[in-house]
Fold these 2 entries.
Entry 1:
Amino acid sequence: MNIATDVVLIVDDDIDLLEAVALILEQCGYRILTATSGEQALEQLRVGPRPSLILFDLMMPGMNGWTLRQKLLDTPEYADIPAVVLSGDHMVLRNAPPPRCTSTLKKPVDLATLLQVVKQSCASAPDDLGG
């Protein structure tokens, strides 16, 4: 995968974290889409380019991360997009992470780990990035 074509959708209701992760990934050459809720994430997927990776929080108002992940898995055109959880709830990550996630990252996220997981996840994304 060519990093210049990799789109990452970041879904988190913590605006400061969302903007920080978006800025870091943009500086590394990724194209970024953002959403502050599960509902917004689904809308981004409907109208925007297909992401190579979805980074998402679990605890969000409205549609939480578990529901978002299940909706992605239930939708054939989104089910194969790699997904990575970002969560401050360390017990949930250990005991009950959402299904079929590439990785789970604890907040506050280690920058080197984040970049490694994003790179690996984008490399495993399907080649069809039609938008």
Entry 2:
Amino acid sequence: MNSFARARLRTIPLRVALRGAALVFTLLPFASSAAEPRSVALLPFELIDEQRDLAPAKVEYTRLPAIRQQLADGFQDKGLYRVIDTGPAQSMIEDLRSRENLLDCNGCELQIGKALHADRVLIGWVQKVSNLILNINIRVEDVSTGTVVLQKSVDIRGNTDDSWRRGIDAMLRDMVDKKQIGR
């Protein structure tokens, strides 16, 4: 073996070590974000009842907290977000909701998110188009900028507890499949 070949063999372990270190430093931001997902404040879901004159919503109002909880549990279980307790801002939330729909309050959701020190705030609503056609919607906003970072909607057929649960399951599955973690 000539001297050139021996020198080249001695540099191979060094090159491998340097490439490995570069890979670790490249992946480090992803590892830290995977370990601690962004925090999100899930506000109470709203109902837009387009059938209130023909078939006013009743049981739908009891399903709103259930799907909010299902979404919160799914976020935690799948590592999509770290869901924070909105209890400390409950009086603020109730006061704002008594005056208007959180969906249309022109930034009041950001005030709530800031009060809770959340990274993100989620507004959710269900639109009842008819007794058989509904859609579940979420909008996630960056608390510091007000930028919408994620908006999702799922259409459901059938107005049952089970169809609402399946709708939230589909939304969570889609977020995982599209790697929309912590957006």
